[in-house]
Every structure is written in structure tokens, then in C-alpha cells.
Predict the 3D structure of the following.
Amino acid sequence: MRRKILYPLFFLSLLILYFFTFNFFNSSEAISTFKQYSSPNYKISKSDVTSYLNSNSENHEDFEYNIKKTILNNLGYEKWEEYIDYIELKLYRENVVHNNTPQLVAVLNLSKDLATVVIYEEANKEYIYKSKLENLSKIKEIKFLENDIFQQDLMLIHQEIDEYFGAFFYKELLDIYIYNNKSFVNLWEQTTFFEESYKESWINPTDNSDKWNRVIEKTEIQFDFTDLAKINTYTEQLKYSAFSNLQPDKNTYTLEDKYTFSQSYYWSSEYNSFILGEVSKETFLTDVALIKDMDTSVERLFGINNKNLKVLSKNGEVSFLNKNKFSGLFQNDK
């Protein structure tokens, strides 16, 4: 009698095991996770990281190659392996996740225009792939902001877009991210430096004066995380001009126009972002937060007027409102 009961249970257990095994190996996500935790080709050795960060260590280039190759495997970027010698690697050990053990934060500058950030968690003597942030501009550096408000370090990702050669254009920008619930969340973004040189006739075909323009925007940033999370900025916008058949030397330009302004952003958990001000649906159609006054953008130095306000809804949607109609609604009393 006992055998009659055990045999059906045994076959039922085999059937359940087969069902879950079949579904597991037919899931690309599950297979990828299995590889990350089981295959040595998908793990980064802690000793390799320590040796690499010690720039005076022997075989430094070998450690770098092994780390880059593992990261490319984790990302599924095998096609980049033929360019591995040209890929720039940056490594940081910081607390960007809610636990007491620092994580390994890796940067791969794949080209002059494309970068990826990858987070690894420590497991025994190895680092295991956790998550990625893709499609960034080339990363100059990542700084980590310790604070008591978010209970984890904020990632200050400094990027650059360099088109000086041929296009006379250069830009540096800052994106602030926090790692939350297996994903990266963008909390704020700001251009920190912008420079472009152009001939007047390129945007005004009727101009025959051989006039050249040089536009510069510089923003200083100060973080105030004492009582509230605040970001204060001071921006200077400059427009220079010169006359020449060819692109002039920078020293020959003279100042033509200048704007300066300060702004203060404060953290809003309702909008999950740093904002300039907000308005409730009792005053407007819906709850929205002001994140940028487009009238202060550097485009005004190009003669482009944008009388709009960039606003953010609580569900993360970005839209624009006419400044003349709605600017009086917003309040910033932080």
C-alpha cells in the first residue's frame, strides 16, 4: 500500500522537476543568470581587481585585459572584443547599493562617443555581475556623493562629447544616478561646460561678413545635503565674435554678450528628482514640477528664443508649458 502511494508521488516530483528545468533552460534571462554565477568566464577575481588598481603591479596589462573581457562577456558585447585594446577601463569600489559591502563599479569607454557602467557585487573572492547602465557618452570620471538622506552614495557621472576636430564643438555634462531596485534612476542632469565655434553664415545664409561666433557656457555646482538635499548652481553664458576668412584663433575673439544666473534645485521624493519648483492640481490641471526654464538655455546665444518651461509629472512624463502663461504658478520655497 505504501509503495502504491510513493510511486505516484515520485513520478509527480519528476514531472514537476522536468517542468521547471525545461522552463529554466528556455529562458534567456535565467540562462544568463546561471552563467554569471557558475562560469569563471563571467566572474571577476578580486585579486585581479586589486592588482589592476595597483598601477605598479607586474602584468598590469594582463589584469586589465582579463577584466575588460569578462565585462564584455557579462554585457553580451562579444563583438567589441576585437577592439578590446582600445577600450578604456575605469574601476571604483563604492557603496552604491543598500548593504555594508562596497560594490565594484566598472566603466567601459567603448569609443569616443559610447560608454557603459556596470555594477558587480562581492561574493567570496569574486565579483558577480549585477546590473548595467548603457548608452552614455564617454565618461571622464565618476564621483560618489556620501550623504545621510539617501542612505547610499549617489553616482555623479561626468561625461564629455568631444567634436572639436572638424565640428568645433565640445560639451561636458553631469548625470546623477542612484541604484534602486535593480535599476539605475536618473535624479538630475546638467551641462557643466559647453563650447562651440561657428561661422555666422552657417545659420544665416544671407550673411557675407565672414563673422565667426564662439559660444561658451560654464556652470558651477554646489551640493548642500545638511538638512535637505539641495543643489545650487551658478551659470555664466558668454558669446564672442571675430572676423576672418578662416576659423580665428581664440585670442582674437571679443566679448559680444553675457548672461549670468543662479538656480537652486531641491529633492522631491514625489517626483523622484531634483526640481526647481512645483504646482499642485488644485492650481493647475495636474501635479507637475518645474525642472528647467528653457529661456535660460544656451540656445539664446544663438539667437533662438524658447519661451517654454520643462515640467515633470509624478509618473515621469516630461512636457513643456508656455512660460508667459504658466511661470507664475510655480513656487520654490525650500
About this structure: The chain is about 20% helix and 45% strand.
